Amino acid sequence: MITLLLLIPIIGSLMILPMSENNLHSKIQMKKIALTTSLINLFLSLLIWFQFDSNTTQFQFVSEFNQLNFCHLNFGIDGISLYFVLLTTFVTPIALLSNYTNITKDLKFFLISFLLLETLQIAAFVSLDLLLFYIFFESVLPILFIVIVIFGHGKDRFRSAFLFFLYTLAGSLPMLLAILVIYNYIGSTDFQLISLYEISLDSQKFLWLAFFIAFAVKTPLYPFIIWLPKAHADSPLAGSIILAATILKLATYGYLRVLINILPDATNYFNPLIQTIAIIAIIYASFSTIIQQDTKRLIAYSSIAHMGVVVLGLFSNNIQGIEGAILLAIAHGFVSPALFICVGGIIYDRTGKRIVNYIRGLATYMPVFTILFFIFTLCNTGIPLSLNFLGEQLSLIGIWQQNPIIAILGATGIVLSACYSLFLFNRLSYGNLSPSLPPLKDINRREYYLLISLLIPTVAFGILPNVILNTLHTSVSALLYIS
């Protein structure tokens, strides 16, 4: 089943590859093939979810390919990777639909890029080998780099693409070095085999710092945050959606799979350092968000603050905190793309502007959009009945049990998120209609369905979180560190 999950987007790409872009009919066919392919993958991932046994910590649906001497592919899913795979397959069709009408040039490359991104991300989440994880972790970089350069906005997109590529590539080099050290020490890079070995604390510290740098850049945590707002601001809407929803979650998954699972002693040793860095990221990013004038940069900075809370929960060393962090990561994967669709898609397509001062009074002509924008703004602040609320509360409750002062400082992120989220909504939606704007049309059917498809799981899982939590309990319990 996992093999199918990885192959279906590739098959879709191969079907699109020989098609011509010279006429409208073939372009429509290419879009339909890409969208159908991503929806088949979503259906297949839901089938895996329904058949998943949540009572074991073992990897399930394991598939191996070792026919070639130089290539041993080993894939499997457990309770931790399951929801990251589901999030990837859910967000990919939304990303494709978000730019469904406004990408006309190089359409074939655009569609193939996002189908390949889906395969590479799923492969990173289901790899049972550390070296394979690194390869797929890094393989999304060149594709996203080219997407930003070709389909991005503004003259600054080249610099943004290079920043994104160089930051994340350079940050991951220590991880490659650490993987080679592990291979030299153990003779294997298999996750299950590594977890059986006793690694001394001094060795763990070195390995932990190498992996942490790579994941901190990808999260991103302070001081490695400069690339994210620039990448979001200058990438196409579909690129921003994928980047916010799933690319940032590669680091979240890495913390769980590598640092907490394989290097538990060093994780416990460096806990105060991680908590300090996460608090700095939350407060710094929140204050930076308030002063932003570009709407996409504003949402990007808010992502940094939310991921800071996720990191606090992940390293709380209790079930509430870790499960809360996973819930918040999933919630962020729904709400952040929705906000990007609102400001970088719907508003930008109609006005051609992203500067807050040029946009106001949208409620006059766009009442349906204003309502949906308001709901997602509230979800972003962590309002009750949303999945964000449960994720933030459980993460902070988890870290409270370890360090109440850190929990109080982390909770300031909730207050600050209410400030910048409501401030943005109020400035864009109310007041007199800006004289620089023409009368605007309300959202169309495609945009409405995109936002509703993101709103339903945000609220449904916010009301019924046990649908997710029951699958997580066993896998998360195995991660706890007993000193």
What does this structure look like?
It is a single chain. The chain has 483 residues and is mainly α. The protein has a domain at 272-483. It has 20 helices and 2 strands. It has a two-stranded antiparallel ribbon. The longest helix has 33 residues, at 319-351. The mean pLDDT is 85.
Radius of gyration: 22 Å
Q: Which stretches of 5+ consecutive residues score pLDDT under 50?
A: none
Q: How many DSSP helices?
A: 20
Number of strands: 2
Work out the strand percent.
under 5%
Q: Which sequence of SSEs, written as H and E, runs from N to C? A: HHEEHHHHHHHHHHHHHHHHHH
Identify the strand order in the major beta sheet: 1-2
Overall average residue pLDDT: 85
- Find the structural class using helix and strand composition: mainly alpha
Q: How widely separated are the two ends?
A: 38 Å
Q: What sort of overall outline do the alpha carbons produce when their principal axes are compared?
A: globular
Helix content: over 70%
* Biggest β-sheet description: 2 strands, antiparallel
Which helices and strands occur, and which strands form pairs?
Layout (H helix, E strand, L loop, with lengths): L1 H15 L7 H28 L8 E9 L2 E7 L1 H20 L8 H20 L3 H22 L5 H30 L4 H6 L4 H18 L8 H8 L2 H11 L1 H14 L1 H6 L1 H20 L4 H20 L4 H33 L15 H15 L5 H16 L1 H26 L15 H19 L2 H12 L6
Antiparallel strand pairs: 1-2
Helix pairs in contact: 1-2, 1-4, 2-3, 2-4, 3-4, 3-10, 3-15, 4-5, 5-6, 6-8, 6-9, 8-11, 9-14, 10-15, 13-14, 13-18, 14-15, 14-17, 14-18, 15-16, 15-17, 15-19, 15-20, 16-18, 16-19, 17-18, 17-19
